[in-house]
Fold each of these.
Amino acid sequence: MIEVRGLAKRFRLPSHQGKPPQSHDPRGHDGWFHAVRDVSFRCAPGEVLGLLGPNGAGKTTTLRLLSTALKADAGSVVANGVDLLADPLAARQRIGFLSGTTGLYGRLTARENVEYFGRLHGMSAPYLRRRCDELFELLQMHQFVDKRADQLSTGMKQKCAIARAVVHEPQIVILDEPTTGLDVMSAKILLDFIASYKALRIPLIFSTHHLHEVDKLCDRVCIINHGKTAFHGSTEELRHLGGSADLYDAFVDVIKQGG
Ligand SMILES: Nc1ncnc2c1ncn2[C@@H]1O[C@H](COP(=O)(O)OP(=O)(O)OP(=O)(O)O)[C@@H](O)[C@H]1O
């Protein structure tokens, strides 16, 4: 179980920038931009949680706080009783994090990129080999696994980045917009891969703009608007929020209500 409570993060606005980045955005004041103001949600073993919200809502910042890539100003992230914000090393061992910004090593092959991260996590050679074979099979990477990363297509790179993020068999998986840039067949492989975590009873959190992915995969949803949790509940609760049983309508309602 991962439980996130009252997460907050602000960034200093450049001194020449009197106004917040979006002038209608209530988050910029006093020389700071409060990107994440109060985000709370939980994800239990066997659940997939979808993190939704308009562009700039604070999804990536929230996920970077969870992964300890950024230091939170307030709030807590507790996983199986361990306070991850207080113990970033424990967090990095427990969490597999796919970020939209971390590049692969271009001169290494896909296989070498994944193996390198496995070794950094202290995996033994036979265990690492077994785990890589399993991941390359699940993500259908065999055709390009020995190609240099700088020669891979966008979708191939994304699969490689995901394999790298979860090579150490983390207890919690966090993926920032994992299907971005993937064609239909690759997206299907990835969605099946995400779904497989339910059977493993490993909480998986992913951000997305695609409501059909939420419909297909998510047990639970957190909608962030202007840096705050505007909705948190089961996908079924969200679906019936507006009475139309349509996720698109419900999402729009939550955002229009100003969350
Ligand atoms: N390092 C930073 N310094 C200043 N502002 C930042 C920084 N990182 C993010 N922000 C601002 O915080 C807000 C939230 O950004 P974030 O990337 O978390 O949004 P998002 O919900 O992931 O958006 P998208 O759907 O477009 O990916 C944005 O207004 C962004 O400009």
Amino acid sequence: MITLALSKGRIFEETLPLLAAAGITVGEDPDKSRKLILPTNQPDVRIVMVRASDVPTYVEHGGADLGVAGRDVLLEHAAGGVGASSGLYQPLDLKIARCRLSVAVREDFDYARAVRQGSRIRVASKYVHLARQHFADKGVHVDLIKLYGSMELAPLTGLADAIVDLVSTGGTLRANHLREVEKIMDISSRLVVNAAALKLQREPIRRLIEAFASALPQD
Ligand SMILES: Nc1ncnc2c1ncn2[C@@H]1O[C@H](COP(=O)(O)OP(=O)(O)OP(=O)(O)O)[C@@H](O)[C@H]1O
Ligand SMILES: O=P(O)(O)OC[C@H]1O[C@H](OP(=O)(O)OP(=O)(O)O)[C@H](O)[C@@H]1O
């Protein structure tokens, strides 16, 4: 049995065509079902539905053999240091769920001036490790505030001066009168594989990786 960890929403939706390229179809829609383990048309392949940020943990500890997770989630997980992610192979950039990790502030906050003056900036983020690293590299002093969602609210309520969050169209920032001031990195989702599973089930996992790779757009 091969177990693939996915999260609801865009990762699930955007992985479906890749699974189809490997001849795998999922019978149920996770948005309509309460089931957490979804069978597929192949008796030896199943999907487990987990939180996006739990995918690396499941794969690293063998709760799933493979998974799909954003570069943001993978880097934050590795930087969190609960295990060095040594048991986690990343053989493929799937180029799905593309966005960027950026710094954003209120439209009326003079970020460049705050940086120039060496002020302490209060930064709210779900990605506190990546944010800490980014500002340390720039030599900017920050106080970090850990949030689990709705980061855009933090500068609007006075909780923080800036946020580190994902941006795609920029629509969420605009709707909340925020402005992107720095791109930290480009993000896409990767296939991750448990190292031990790769040894024990080399052939079926290799076939799956090859099918996924052949379904990716060439650029
Ligand atoms: N607006 C977006 N456009 C494109 N890709 C995105 C966007 N937002 C997030 N992503 C990517 O998709 C991944 C999953 O995001 P999703 O919104 O489904 O989960 P989440 O709600 O952030 O996770 P969790 O449930 O763990 O809090 C992110 O880790 C990121 O790599
Ligand atoms: O620049 P945009 O295209 O507006 O996307 C950015 C938003 O997407 C992500 O949230 P979430 O996962 O909630 O996005 P969703 O609303 O698309 O689900 C992210 O945390 C931003 O809030």
Amino acid sequence: MSAAIIDGKAFAATIRARVADHVARLRDEQGTAPGLAVVLVGEDPASQVYVRSKGKMTKECGMQSFEHRLPADTTQVDLMALIARLNADAQVHGILVQLPLPAHLDSDLVINAIDPAKDVDGFHVSNVGLLGTGQKAMVPCTPLGCLMMLRDHHGSLSGMDAVVLGRSNIVGKPMAQLLLGDSCTVTIAHSRTRDLAEVTRRADILVAAVGRPEMVTGDYVKPGATVIDVGINRVERDGASRLVGDCDFASCAEVAGAITPVPGGVGPMTIACLLANTVTAFCRAHDLKEPDGLTA
Ligand SMILES: Nc1nc(=O)c2c([nH]1)NC[C@@H]1CN(c3ccc(C(=O)N[C@@H](CCC(=O)O)C(=O)O)cc3)C=[N+]21
């Protein structure tokens, strides 16, 4: 193995410490702290674990955490009514609706009902449009976390060849916008891309977000490239359940110059950026200076 390991877990801890610092100052100066509402519909065990950990870290940073757990058979009307209440609640500065929603619910309708100023996931069409036009937006947490790690590792990204593998609205597309904003030459590749490994081997920065366990092997990677592994896949291995990324870590690490591990890479950064976005939303709502280094 030759690649440097980009320690997302440690970096995320420093971001959370900065968030906590800023929150403490806001409490002093404003007499109130940012609040984050998380909405979970249904009983998916992975989602429950994840929502619990978000709530815990929200409180550890000194912010208010509001958890709304709704039954799997919640109606669209009831969910929309909850969103309307959270939009109107002055204690709530950020709203996150855990995705995916059960199939009978229309997630586009739900997300676009969130006040864009409280849309800490950055999924509302207004925020997507603001990001795409280079205006001040709420930026999706996972791509923001990846960008922070890349800037931290490289300093400037200007002129670098970046390939984003995956075209989802929550990772691939916003990741491409952020890399473009930092003056990378950006290619979005996906399952129908011809000669995929040939395309990804041109990348100085390769972001893998396809949701297919260990699909990206060393032969997809240009020697010395930086590999950001967004995948979080639970697989059975030797009778045990474990997490693997979209990259085959061993073979990629032999070729790459730097790589993020799974777990301990992008995942913890996603949660740290959610907390950072909540502080940003609070500051914008109160017309205060935004925290340095916690936004795109
Ligand atoms: N509206 C919405 N926004 C999201 O941001 C969102 C979502 N829905 N739905 C589910 C996915 C998944 N997601 C993760 C974030 C962090 C870890 C994380 O911290 N993972 C740890 C490992 C945790 C473990 O050991 O299970 C790690 O990678 O080191 C995992 C998964 C955010 N999501």
